[in-house]
Amino acid sequence: MSSEESYKQIEGEWKDFRFRRIQPSDYEAVYEHIAQSFCRDEPTANLLGWSEEFAADVNRIVAVFLPEGLSFLAEHKSTGKIAGVRITFHHKADSDAFEGIPLNTRNCKIMVKMVTDVEEMADVTTKHGINTWAEFLLVSTSQDFRKQGLAGEFYNRSIKFLKAEGFKHALVVVTSPYTQKATSGRGFEQQSRLDYGNLMDFDGKTPVFKKEELTPDHFAMVMLKTL
Length: 227
Known about the structure:
It comes from Orchesella cincta. The chain has helices at residues 4-7, 27-41, 43-48, 52-65, 106-122, 124-128, 150-164, 177-184, and strands at 12-14, 17-21, 72-76, 82-92, 132-141, 169-174, 189-195, 219-226.
């Protein structure tokens, strides 16, 4: 578990919001936020299609990583509503982060495959000699609190927190030009890019998406920062 001194790097008030660590008592509210905000609106999730079963699968993944104590939420000070969440986990190169998590929907399995494929393309262990890093699994903001800088502030505070925790690198798979801009502006560097026209199904030869479904903004990209 992280230290109280490290938590001071991210916890506190900012504008109309309060940033704090996610406690076990917050888990159910966090799952509901992810189901209704991230799983409906994140570009890849939106492309794959929302369902309650898909959201439940995403939250099974999140549930594995919350106990690590690296994840945070922002709550609206006047209403107490969750305005956003940042889910982070400790990724080690010699382990499959998603192995053993029971997933029931094809959509979530495809999303995990996308993350795995683009990270294998990046191969940061071979290219940079990195065996461990902090990985940003997702950042999500509620529809009511968007365009107020929350996602960027999560990055700012999380970077300070991870440095205090002794991490040397942070990695994130971004899936839109907006998150690409947010990360590159904070010193993250592109390691790989997977355009969704080249994302293959589990047989390795059938495209997941039809060309008419895609735009140039449909991609996944690994971004890496030295802390």
